UniProtKB/TrEMBL annotation:
It comes from Salipaludibacillus aurantiacus. NCBIfam families: ant_ant_sig (TIGR00377), spore_II_AA (TIGR02886). One of its GO terms (molecular function) is antisigma factor binding. The keyword Zinc does not apply. This is Anti-sigma F factor antagonist. GO terms for biological process: sporulation resulting in formation of a cellular spore. It comes from the Bacteria.
């Protein structure tokens, strides 16, 4: 049940790459790390790369939705890319596909956020 969190700043975008499982055991850690980086670097956009995320439960979904609301409140955007079939189903059931932008790769996600790659 471990989760590796890789954070990288690209212009005004916080790139978050997750490896492993996002569940109630580590959802708070992810929220704290992302919120801290957004505040520290004064960023307004988040790119969430889920290519290597193997599992997500409702706690993880709550963290994603919370970060979406956080960046929206300051005029930013959250874009998700490289979603695995397992996690895609959770997003379909939750209705998140209706409000969040999804792209097939990180390059497209960065371009949609105005960052030339």
């Amino acid at each position: 049940m471990s989760l590796l969190i890789d954070l990288e700043r690209k212009e005004e975008v916080l790139c978050v790459r997750l490896v492993g499982e996002l569940d109630h055991h580590n959802a708070v850690k992810l929220r704290e790390r992302v919120d801290s980086a957004l505040s520290e670097y004064h960023l307004t956009h988040v790119l969430l790369n889920l290519e290597k995320l193997t599992f997500m439960d409702s706690s993880g979904l709550g963290v994603v939705l919370g970060r979406y609301k956080k960046v929206q409140s300051v005029g930013g955007e959250l874009v998700i890319c490289c979603i695995s079939p397992q996690v895609k189903r959770l997003f379909e059931l939750s209705g998140l596909f209706k409000i969040v932008t999804f792209t097939s790769n990180e390059r497209e996600a960065l371009m949609s956020l105005g960052v030339a790659s």
